[in-house]
Specification:
One of its GO terms (biological process) is transmembrane transport. It is found in: Cell membrane. Its main location: membrane. Belongs to the binding-protein-dependent transport system permease family. There is one protein chain. With 364 residues, the protein is mostly helical. It has a domain of 222 residues: Orthogonal Bundle (MetI-like fold). The protein is built from 16 helices and no strands. α5 packs parallel to α7. 28% of the residues are buried.
Length: 364
């Protein structure tokens, strides 16, 4: 019948295999492939059932204390019910932890609002982040409207992780734009100096930069310039983020046709008008996928600050089972902390995929 269609000049419609046909063709085409697929499916089903039974069916959910888990054969989620405040708020004063919770809600709401297209402008987006970040910092530190002052040394848990992450992104993104523009400068001295700076910092591990900011900088600067250790670490982290993001932005700029800048100059636009209205918006559009990836990596790398003495969510998780009565529940705590990281990183990655589809980055 297809031969008749070809002879008559008609093109037969394309065949669309059903899902079952595609699975049969890909995984059960031969007896050997069917056997391997069956064994793999059985192992996956066994693993899923084992984890489900340990985490749900045989788990202990009561918060009656560590004694309720002594005879349990599954997970002891009672440690989360008993120690969740420590994981989320760290060393923050118990009576003031509602402020830390509101601060986290404020920064998460800021991230959510900035994801909507109506806030994507050069004036609205900075205002949204300045307002959200100001509310976050004001609630965390206090010292106004009758709120007691809570120093940064008492911050911890998830709220400290969000503070470090949001500060690094907010300060590192403008710095990345500046570095990308300076590296494209027509003055060789500036371009080469910035290139050496970027390549030099990119060649160092983040741990070395954090240790330098926390331990070595106080010996190299006068006492009045040292500042708090938390902000030194954030500054080093922001610089590390900025050099990687600068290369991502510069790659987005190089993807643009050179004629666009020439056309802008022909229309009478100056350098800053050309960059802000033509080059940078398109550069960010081209650099969107790696930018989202860099933001996700930055959130995961916030766990490294635990090695220099900060009580972030990973350190808070370690403290949750460090007592003798909860020492056997480290697996449950690590699973809970991993679920927190997964929730944030998966949401960011899915939002990045949504933006790719919306802006058609892959087609242009």
């Amino acid at each position: 019948m297809s031969n008749v269609a070809i002879v008559s000049g008609e093109i037969p419609p394309p065949r669309h295999d059903t899902f079952l046909a595609a699975v049969r063709k890909g995984y059960f085409a031969t007896p050997g492939a069917a056997a391997v697929t069956s064994v793999c499916l059985a192992l996956i089903a066994l693993a899923v059932w084992t984890v489900f039974r340990w985490a749900v069916l045989d788990a202990v959910w009561s918060s009656g204390g560590p004694n309720v888990c002594q005879q349990a054969t599954g997970a002891c989620w009672a440690v989360i019910a008993a120690r969740w405040r420590l994981i989320f708020f760290g060393l923050y004063p118990y009576d003031e932890q509602w402020r830390s919770a509101l601060a986290c809600a404020a920064i998460l709401a800021t991230v959510a609002v900035s994801c909507f297209p109506f806030s994507w402008s050069a004036t609205r987006l900075p205002l949204v982040w300045i307002a959200g970040y100001g509310v976050f910092y004001g609630l965390m530190r206090g010292g106004f409207l009758g709120l007691p002052t809570v120093l940064e040394t008492q911050w911890g848990g998830l709220s400290l992780t969000l503070f470090v992450f949001s500060t690094v992104v907010v300060t590192g993104m403008p710095l990345a734009v500046c570095l990308a523009l300076l590296r494209r400068s027509r003055l060789p001295v500036i371009a080469r100096t910035v290139a050496v700076l970027i390549d030099g910092i990119r060649s160092l591990p983040l741990v070395a930069i954090l240790f330098t900011a926390a331990i070595i900088i106080p010996y190299a600067l006068p006492h009045f310039l040292v500042g708090d250790k938390l902000y030194r670490v954030i500054a080093g982290f922001s610089l590390f983020f900025a050099v990687y993001q600068a290369e991502i932005i510069r790659g987005g700029m190089q993807a643009l046709p050179a004629g666009q800048e020439e056309a802008a100059h022909a229309l009478g636009l100056n350098y800053w008008q050309t960059m802000s209205r033509i080059v940078l918006p398109q550069a960010f559009r081209h650099a969107l996928p790696p930018t989202i990836n860099q933001v996700v990596i930055t959130f995961m790398e916030t766990s490294l600050i635990v090695i220099i003495g900060f009580f972030e969510v990973m350190a808070s998780g370690n403290a949750a089972f460090s007592t003798a009565e909860w020492s056997a529940t480290y697996v449950e705590v690590y699973v809970f902390v991993a679920a927190i990281y997964f929730a944030f990183t998966f949401t960011l990655s899915r939002y990045g995929a949504y933006l790719e589809r919306r802006l058609n980055v892959a087609r242009h």
